[in-house]
Fold this protein.
Amino acid sequence: MSTLTEAPPPLAPAAPEKKPPRKRGRFTPYWLLLPGMLWLVVFFALPMIYQASTSVQTGSLEEGYKVTWHFVTYWNALSEYWPQFLRSVFYAAAATVLCLLLGYPLAYLIAFRAGRWKNLLMILVIAPFFTSFLIRTLAWKTILADNGPVVHALNSLHILDLTNFLGWTAGDRVLATPLAVVCGLTYNFLPFMILPLYTSLERIDGRLHEAAGDLYAKPWTTFRKVTFPLSMPGVVSGTLLTFIPAAGDYVNAELLGSTDTRMIGNVIQTQFLRILDYPTAAALSFILMAAILAMVTIYIRRSGTEDLV
Amino acid sequence: MTTPDNSGDVRLSGISKTYDNGFTAVQPLDLTVPQGSFFALLGASGCGKTTTLRMIAGLEEPSSGTVRLGDQDVTHLPPYKRPVNTVFQSYALFPHLDIFENVAFGLRRRGIKSVKKQVEEMLELVQLGEQARKKPHQLSGGQQQRVAVARALINHPKVLLLDEPLGALDLKLRRQMQLELKRIQTEVGITFVHVTHDQEEAMTMADTVAVMNAGRVEQLGSPSDLYENPQTTFVANFLGTSNLIEAEVDTKNGDDIVLKAGGGKLVLPEARCSAPTTAGGKVLVGIRPEKISLTHADDAGEIPAGRNRLTGRIADASFIGVSTQYVIDSPVCDELSVYVQNVERDGRLVPGAEVVLHWSPAHTFGLDAAQDIDAGTEEEAAA
Amino acid sequence: MPFVTWLKRRLVVIAGLLTLAYLLLPNVIVTVFSFNKPKGRFNYEWQQFSLDAWKQPCGVADMCGSLSISLQIAVWATIGATLLGTMIAFALVRYRFRARGAVNSLIFLPMAMPEVVMAASLLTLFLNMGAQLGFLTILIAHIMFCLSFVVTAVKARVMSMDPRLEEAARDLYAGPVQTFLRVTLPIAAPGIAAGALLSFALSFDDFIITNFNAGSTVTFPMFVWGSAQRGTPVQINVIGTAMFLVAVLFVLTSMVISNRRNKQKA
């Protein structure tokens, strides 16, 4: 109501004690925003700047670091670690596709076919969250164990021969191979795919299915022409919520993989916490951030869904 | 003689509302709603009627002007300090409170401890005693509406504001609630200010109706006055249907004006003309469809003298039970509407028939021809 | 042929249930192996049934200590993030102010950023400031990444709230404070609760950001991570199973209660 002060004088004779227009509330939003935004600026935005600065510093732990605009660090980091970068993108993409393929039927089932079991199924999707994801990821070591039933079955069905041929597995093992890492990534981020999918599917009016059927669409056509396009917002945010954390993850590669499956997250972690080469680590982290932001921006633009938040 | 209690008067003087984005919802307007009356603000959506109501409630601060309740200036009082309560559009019942607590809300906020008896009486008045412990979403639309009325009335406000209170109800229930609200108003004697876009609702319920258009009050008066003697094309078209015929002032004859339309002459009582009537000036001649009689051209001689007449040909006829609605093309005006009661139907009155339309000059009204002839029609609203 | 038709009709159901099985299989394994008596240091192969670990859940050095640290951090992070996030959400929905776009991006970005990037950059900040890594730095980090999720959850709820409800309260003699306490807050409560629950789960389970900024403090996920290298005690599975059961029971009871309440009222 900021134009109150510019309002024309009242037509009626001025009341003897005319209070000024209320200004209460003009600064309220800023007070409400201040603490939280300050937190994000100091502990999210500022660190990004520090990191950018660290990435162009030279020096050593003993003598300290100085900003020398040493951009060569970026070049060196990229030329040394491009395989890990590529691998991260590839694994994350594979996990995202798998999540979509696995998650869509479940989200669809919960949204349209579950009836009174809906709530129970939702709980079962969310419940695993409450057990530490590290413990659950370790359980995959048991599931995919070399002499376990899963590997046995894959072996006797000759699926392992195929995956060996594709380079996803090696020998009679699944553990310590790319397949195990992708399997772990898929597992860990599956709920992040299912929940947004479910949300956008649930919004679809069930009568649309009937209308499509009424207009001579077969079930599969109905899905392709009506359901799937309408669930696009869920597909977009689901893939983002899966791809982004998967690309930066190093837990699955570390627990289920081997030195040949190291992802960029592993490299950043090692550089930062063990080798203590801060400029290289910062440069790698910065590249990862830039790459992901670029990909996300392009993806959101192309899919035309800008209101994800 | 006792001094009349006027503490329930609502007096708006020079009140207007312009939003930050420059849109003026309400042009400066003066309005007095007398104590104890049932007052309706009628208009299409966006005409400023709801904004006016919200300024009385205190939910919107006027850009200029003052709001008075009786002698008290409440212009700058926040809503919770005004002795005014509102029945909101789609009710705005608190979903987290049950019916009892919804109704008790206002009493509790004013620090009244023992609310039980009052709330129960109020719920009885609106026939919801059984539902006290239900949540709003468990009630039907009509029941929710009654809760909203009870929640407002229990505070004994000086004025009750109703913002499209029946908009969410189906037609049958709406009729029923119209009568119910009217009954309650008569019973409690509080000033009601009712906002609606439904002209039938306004005319059934209100003593006084203010027709609003584009932030201004077009005309104010009793329902019958507005209907019989509209003063703008908007009111003529928005309240019911009007036939408006362009004519030219010819001569004055005592209290009547004689007008030329096409080749014929029409007579209009000067008192019923809101337009300037200089000779040669243009005037819109208005006549309601049910005031017109139809006679087949062959019987034109039987029409009594002194009546206004037009000739035409029936373009369309639709039978709707109590009456037949004709559309008639006349040389002076296309698509005239005529409603004829189905008392004695003339079998010759079928599409294509040549007819004479005639009516008593006393039913004619005259409007300023400078206005948009289609203002307030449905065609215009759809455009 | 009838079998094929039957299969076709239930394809979605079968595929969905298979996915559900994939999601739940690790939890089953965790539970089963909490009754194992492994031979070596690692609890990856089934040996024999035993209740030893359940009898002594804290029988492993430092594990319950780390659990308590994690719980404390989760509680404080939840309180902090819920408070700050709710304030932001209300400002975003209810007020107009400058720099809305910047505020929105600053809230969106932490959710669109790989954890390892936030972890690494936050560590550079702490190192540059010479901050002592530990409980406080973990808490700061957790509040930071939980904040955005609270804002999103509360914002959705407040946005779907009819503004007329607050107008009705003001119309019925409730001042600004009363309106907020009696109407706004109770109606926004489910959103705030969802944000708080999410914060708790995210904070309690966080490993990557914590690992970078913990110094010598060991949270429960960090303990599990370390044990994956040194040897996994069965007690880890006991804690995992117990957490799962408590969570499911909690949700089921609240569901049953709300169901019963609805039935009574109807």
Notes: Chain C has two domains: 2-52, 61-232. Residues 2-52 of chain C form one domain. Chain C touches chain A through 87 residues (CB under 8 Å).
